[in-house]
Amino acid sequence: MGCKNHPNVVAADRCAGCAESFCQDCLVDIGGQKYCGSCKVMALQGRPVAAAATTPCKEADEALKYAIIGIFCFGIILEPMAIAKALKAKNLINASPNLTGSGKANAALIIGIVGLILWVLGLFMRISQTR
Ligand SMILES: [Zn+2]
Ligand SMILES: [Zn+2]
């Protein structure tokens, strides 16, 4: 059987989308499946949706890490950084639907704010005790 686009060329494989026969030049490998030129577009458009659940937002991870470390040390510096990163992560997640981690970003935001309050209170306590 010949390629649908090039009738005089022997078909190498079938398209995973339309099941028509195509030659090696016409087929594109996407995620282990072979697609023809027109089905490739559809397959590529489908991919960001499929990958949506698997792209965690790096900012949210970092924000949560800073927030947790900040509870124990350097909270005055780390908690504001965690809050800033959490807000940035929330913006990034809102802007692109293929990012996950809004739960982490929210957690980082809450821990960051609570951590910062604790550190500020701790500082006030220390100042009042030295009087
Ligand atoms: Zn096709
Ligand atoms: Zn061809």
Q: Termini separation (Å)?
A: 93 Å
Order of neighbouring strands in the sheet with most strands: 1-2
Q: Mean pLDDT across all residues, rounded?
A: 87
Q: List the uncertain runs.
A: none
Instruction: Give me the secondary-structure category.
Output: mainly alpha
Question: What is the number of domains?
Answer: 2
Which term fits the overall shape?
rod-shaped
Q: Over all CA atoms, what is the radius of gyration?
A: 26 Å
Strand content: 5-15%
Total strand count, please? 4
Count up the helices.
4
Largest sheet report: 2 strands, antiparallel
* Percent helix: 55-70%
Order of helices and strands: EEEEHHHH
Bound molecules: zinc ion
Question: Can you offer a commentary on this structure?
Answer:
This protein is mainly alpha-helical. It has two domains: 13-50, no CATH class; 53-130. It is 60% helix and 8% strand. Strand 1 and strand 2 form a beta hairpin. Helix 2 (58-72) packs antiparallel against helix 3 (75-95). The protein binds zinc ion (2 copies).
Q: How do the helices and strands line up, and which of them pair or pack?
A:
Layout: E1 13-14, E2 21-22, E3 28-30, E4 33-35, H1 37-50, H2 58-72, H3 75-95, H4 102-130
Antiparallel strand pairs: 1-2, 3-4
Helix pairs in contact: 2-3, 2-4, 3-4
Bound molecules: zinc ion (2 copies).
Residues 3, 5-6, 9, 22-23, 25-26 line the site of one zinc ion (ZN).
